[in-house]
Design brief:
417 residues, alpha+beta, FAD/NAD(P)-binding domain, Alpha-Beta Plaits, eight-stranded mixed sheet, 11 helices, 20 strands, binds flavin-adenine dinucleotide
Length: 417
């Protein structure tokens, strides 16, 4: 009888966490299988803000030049228009070695990591393979069940198994493996959901990426060169009710907030052009079990404030590779203490950013989207402080570089030819 297929490490999920970790482990000489349920990386509004912490990791593995050749828009500073008053808020200028964040289609970043991974014979990326559960023996995770990913109306594919000495769940905020492992998350809540849509940009439009708060509405406009990527905030759960109304309701709110877009709101043809991000902020109390580690959104879903999700996922991947690559190159079981060490390194930076996000949600966003009739204003002391670039550097540093930033220390073996 044939032995069941097996690998040293199985990573579930080919998002930023899974692709970066797969590449780092393959580069360190570990046999790694990455399972990604979709057939490609092409999904719109998936999160595109690449911060300096990610650029530094890419530089450390020799991918920065290729990354900089990807289509992108660089942002050095961000302003808010609060009840008609323009206020500079966040400034990357003066920070080193990168004085900007980059808006890069996430599929381009993932394709870059996949292409680099494929240079290593021990990197096995399997697209359209969806993990469905965990295999456990003697209180330890020893693999996953999986099948070909089929659309929900197609006949279900039959399950196969893949045994692995270590399973790493990078399967995002709706993690199948988190549910299978019955790991409990602390839910921190959010007052808002985000409606994402795009609108054409004209040459006469503002150049910068900025946020606008007025009349109980809030919208962030990200300059994507030929179009605006718009994030329109609605009170939590308000999306379903809004969608029962004509699309003109959204168009009119957009025109009120950004009058320069009034001539093209008809490009939002229907609610089908609008994608909802249900904002979720949570963190697992424990990110591991014997034979299983969770990282990225599977361990901690982030608020969209600061656009940190991709970057924290990549930092988790770097920390996991640093801690586990050498152990995975051997043949011994991976001790749970090594998995706990990954959580110990990443918990503090994650919770620090979440605390800042939760404070901003409570103090700014809840008030900005409340239809109370009282206009939101920037307090005079805050306005005075924000005139100093070094003060505006603080949020840029926190979101862009982050407390506890990880340097790539996992080895390269064999050296790439
Ligand atoms: C609409 C939207 C906008 C966002 N905007 C931003 C932003 O501007 N900036 C930012 O930094 N972050 C943003 N985020 C968050 C960001 O996308 C995530 O924080 C980040 O991608 C997390 O990376 P990850 O690898 O942990 O998980 P994910 O990116 O969620 O990747 C998980 C991967 O696992 C795959 N998968 C899921 N289940 C299975 C399974 N059972 N088997 C196999 N594969 C599976 C999925 O297809 C996916 O490819 C946004 C998120 C959304 C939804």
């Amino acid at each position: 009888m044939d032995a069941a297929p097996s690998t040293r490490c199985c990573i579930v999920g080919g998002g930023p966490a899974g692709m970066m970790l797969g590449l780092l482990l393959a580069r360190a000489g570990v046999n790694v299988v990455v399972l990604e349920k979709h057939g490609d990386f092409l999904r719109d509004f998936r999160g595109d803000t690449v911060h300096p912490s990610t650029m530094m990791a890419l530089q450390q593995i020799g991918l920065l030049e290729k990354f900089e050749r990807l289509p992108q828009h660089r942002i050095q500073h961000l302003a808010g228009i609060v009840s008609g008053h323009t206020q500079e808020l966040i400034d990357f200028r003066g920070l080193a070695p990168f004085d900007h964040l980059a808006l890069v289609p996430q599929w381009d970043l993932l394709a870059l990591l996949a292409a680099e991974g494929r240079r290593y014979p021990n990197f096995d990326l399997r697209m359209r393979r969806m993990a469905t559960g965990l295999i456990e023996e003697g209180g330890r995770v020893v693999g996953v069940t999986m099948h070909e990913y089929v659309k929900s109306d197609a006949p279900a594919a039959s399950d196969e198994t893949l045994r692995a000495d270590l399973v790493i769940a990078c399967d995002g905020r709706h993690s199948t493996l988190r549910a299978a492992a019955k790991l409990a998350a602390n839910e921190y809540g959010a007052p808002m959901d985000v409606l994402w849509f795009r609108m054409p940009r004209a040459d006469t439009d503002p150049q910068e990426t900025f946020g606008i708060v007025d009349s109980g509405h809030m919208m962030v406009l990200l300059n994507r060169n030929d179009y605006w990527q718009a994030a329109f905030l609605v009170p939590k759960g308000g999306d379903a009710q809004l969608r029962t109304q004509p699309i003109e309701v959204l168009r009119s709110a957009v025109s009120t907030l950004a009058s320069f877009l009034a001539d093209r709101t008809s490009t939002i043809e229907s609610w089908d052009d609008v994608k909802t991000l249900e904002v979720q902020v949570d963190c697992l109390g424990q990110w591991h079990q014997p034979g299983l580690l969770l990282i990225g959104d599977a361990a901690h879903a982030m608020s969209p404030i600061g656009g940190v999700g991709i970057n924290l996922a990549i930092q988790d991947a770097v920390a996991a590779a640093n801690a586990l690559a050498e152990l995975l190159r051997g043949n011994d079981p991976i001790p749970e203490s090594a998995l706990a060490a990954v959580q110990a390194r990443r918990m503090k930076p994650t919770r620090l950013v979440q605390r800042v996000q939760l404070t901003m949600q409570k103090r700014i966003i809840s008030r900005a989207i409340a239809q109370s009739g009282t206009p939101l204003t920037v307090p005079p002391l805050v306005r005075w402080l924000l005139q100093f670039r070094r003060v505006r550097n603080i949020p840029a540093w926190l979101f862009g570089y982050g407390y506890g930033r990880e340097d790539v220390r996992s080895p390269v073996f064999p050296p790439p030819g």
